[in-house]
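Subject: complex prediction, re-run

Hi both,

The earlier run crashed halfway through, so I resubmitted it with identical inputs.
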Amino acid sequence: NAGVTQTPKFQVLKTGQSMTLQCAQDMNHNSMYWYRQDPGMGLRLIYYSASEGTTDKGEVPNGYNVSRLNKREFSLRLESAAPSQTSVYFCASTLTGYHEQYFGPGTRLTVT
Amino acid sequence: ILNVEQSPQSLHVQEGDSTNFTCSFPSSNFYALHWYRWETAKSPEALFVMTLNGDEKKKGRISATLNTKEGYSYLYIKGSQPEDSATYLCAFLRSGSARQLTFGSGTQLTVLP
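This time it finished cleanly. Structure:
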């Protein structure tokens, strides 16, 4: 089992460019999450998907969109990247919202 | 926005010392409290999920307690080893929030050999 995988691992964008971060899990989990991690801020929830076909905003959704493509995959899209979106992005999944979360390896994004 | 506070922010201890840190969270609408261990250049990994007031959980030299009435949890490490060096995160799950964890900013532990 690969667990939770994320691509790419690193990305540099110019302001205004768009990109999609991919996440997939092979644990048959129902719920999936996107977080961003900034120094001194801990992990902040961007969007989550409680189950296939549903998505909801988290604490910091502005500037992002998500797609729960199927049970395995949950993607995060930046339509017009801004320097404030420079961060490390983590995808996570869990069987239900009440169990421990399993994290992917992270994507380090720099927007210049 | 829920307030989940962790203290201290960072901690240096000598190998063999025992240590503990605190996570404070809202005492109302409690559902669960998670602890994660996050090593540098890796991803967070779950240590404990605690749901009952008075809960105590243990994994090797690491243990945690939970007081939901006063809104705090302690994480203890007995006989710290250099491989315990990591950031320890707690995360609060509020009842009714369904699936949203609110994370503290973590305690960064460095164990010196």
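The CA atoms of residues 20 and 82 of chain A lie 14 Å apart.

- K.
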